[in-house]
Design a protein that fits this description.
This protein has 621 residues and is an alpha/beta fold. It contains 18 helices and 24 strands. Bound molecules: fructose -6-phosphate (F6R). Fructose -6-phosphate binds next to helix 9 and helix 16.
Length: 621
Amino acid sequence: MSASAYALRMCGIVGYVGERSALDVVVEGLKRLEYRGYDSAGVAIRDDAGELTVIRKAGKLANLQAALAEASEADLTGTLGIGHTRWATHGAPTDRNAHPHTDCQGAVAVVHNGTLENFEVLRDGLEHRGHTLLSETDTEAVAHLIEEQYDGDLAAAVRTVCAGLEGSYVLVVTHRDHPDLVIGARRNLPLVVGLGEGENFLASDVTAFIAHTRTARAIDQDQFVELRREGVRVTDAQGTEVDGEVFHVDWDTAAAEKAGYEYFMLKEIDEQPEALRETALGRVDVHGRLMLDELAMSDEDVQGLSQVIVVGCGSAYHSGLVAKYAIERWARLPVQVEMASEFRYRDPVLDRHTLVVAISQSGETADTLEAVRHARRQRASVLAITNTVGSSIARESDATFYTRGGPEVAVASTKAVMTQLVAVYLVGLYLAQVRGYRDGDEIRSHFADLAHTPDLVAAVLGRMDPVRKLAREIASCERVLFLGRHVGYPMAMEGALKLKELAYVSAEGFPAGEIKHGPIALIEKGTPVVVIAPRHALTPKLVTNVQEVRARGARTIVIATDGDDSMVPHADELIRIPDTKSLLSPLLTLVPMQILAAEFAMARGLDVDQPRNLAKSVTVE
Ligand code: F6R
C-alpha cells in the first residue's frame, strides 16, 4: 500500500489555550466532533514542564480515553493542547498513523484535516535531508517541514511551509517552546475560532466549543490564526493582520448532548417538530406575505429568472428533488436537480438568469462547495440552504437561507433533511409570490399547511411503536426495496439511503412505475417492500404497482394516509400518517422510514450514530 493511501480526508480538529485543563477541553471537543471521523484519535498536551506529550490510539475516542486514563497525570497537566479525530479513506488506521504527528525532536506537534497532493515529493525531500518519518501519513511531513523552517517564530514557519503545500488542509500546530501559542492554517476546509475570556479555541466546527463560548469567527481561505490566551490574530499568507466577521452561535449546548437517548439519531428524530417550527418561524409579514429577505434578490431579478438548478449530495440531493416538485408546481419555473459531485463536470448551461440552490447541512461538503464556486463563476446567483452558520458554503454563496435545525450529530441526517424540505417549500412559495403565479390566498393557505406540519410530525412520532416492532421482525432481511411516486419517489430514495447506511443491507428506492422495467426481478418471497403511498391523485396507479410486487411474493409495508383505505387490501403492514397536502407529505412519510432504519440497525446490534466507513461531512471530492 502506498503511503499516500493513508492520506487523511475528513477529520475533527480541536486546539485550546487558556486556564483550564487542556486535556479536558480537547477531549470534550473531540467527543463532539467524533461524528466527523472515528478511525483513530489523539491529543498533544504541552505540560507544565514545557514538554509535549502525545497520546494517540486507533479506533474510537473511547480507546484514546482508556489510554489517557493509564498515562501519567503529570504529563497531561497543562493548559495548552490540540486534538484530532480521524476518518481515513484507505487502509487500516493504526496507532502510528493517528494524529498528532511530531518532528524529529518531538518539539512540534501537528494535526491535520485534508490531503496533501505533493506529499510524496515533500517526503522524499525530507528523507533525503536526513529526517526519519515514522508514519504513512502526509501530515507527518508537515511537522518535519516546520522543524526545518522554525527559527523561533512559529507562525512564520507555518506560513512558509504552507506556501509549499499543494492540496487541501486545516493544520493546527503547537511547539514546546511556546506556552501561549497555537497556530491554525486553512485551505479549502473548515476552521473556526471560539473567542473566550482568557482562553481561545480552534475547531473544525463550533460544536466543539459551544459549551465554553458562543462567540466565534470563521477563518477564510488561506488565512492563518495565532491563538493566545488573551487574543487571536488572524493573518493572510504574508503575515498581515486581516479583519473578519465575528458571529454568535445560538445553538443550545443541550442540543449537542444525548440527553438520555441511547443515540443522537433517536434524539434528533424526536427533535424534528421543533426544528421544523424554528425553520418556518417568522417568515410571514403582518399582511400575510411571505418574507424571504435571505434570498437577497430584487423582485425584478426573481421575475427575470429562467431556471433553477438545485445541487446537493446524498440526503441533501433528495431534498433537492422535492424542491423540483414544489418550485415547478408553485412558481412555474423549470428546475433541474443534480448531484453536486457531477454538476460542474458536465459544463452546465448557466447565466445570470439562473438561480442555483445549494443544499448542505454542514455547509462544508466539498462537492457542493465546488458546485457553488462553479455556478458563481458562470454568473448564476447562488442561494445556500444550510444548517451551519459561518460555513464555507454560506460564506461563498450570494445568499443564505439558514435552516434552524440545531446541531445534527448523528451521521445519518434526519432533522436536517426535514428542515431542508421546509426551506425548499418556502423558497418555492416565495418565488411563486414574487412571480405572481399564485395569489396571496393560495400562498397563505400553503404556508398555513406548512406551519401545521410540526404538529402532524409530532403525531406521527407518537404512533411509531408498531414500526419499531416491524423493524425488529424484518431485521434479518438482506434486501429491502422502497417505492414511491411523485414526491414519494425522492422519499423512497431517502428511506433506502437511511437503511443502507445504518444497517448495511442492500436497499434501493425506485419510482414505483419503473420497477417493472427491471428492479422487480429483485423481489423474492418475503422481500420487504416499503411503499410510500400518501393520499394523491396517483394512488390508484400505486395500488397497481403494489399488486405487481405482492404477486411476486413481496411483503408490502405501506405508508398511507388516515382514512384512505385503497391500499388496505394490498398491504401486509400498514403505517398510517395524518392527512396533509400531497406536496408536503415527505415531511410525514420520512418519519416512519427513519425509525424503521434506526430500529432495524439497532436490532442488528449496530451503532446508528457512527455507521462504518462514513463521516458526517465529506470535505473532499
Ligand atoms: C445521509 C447523509 C449524507 C449527507 C451528505 C451531504 O444520511 O447524511 O448523505 O446528506 O453527505 O451532506 P451535507 O448536507 O452536509 O452537504
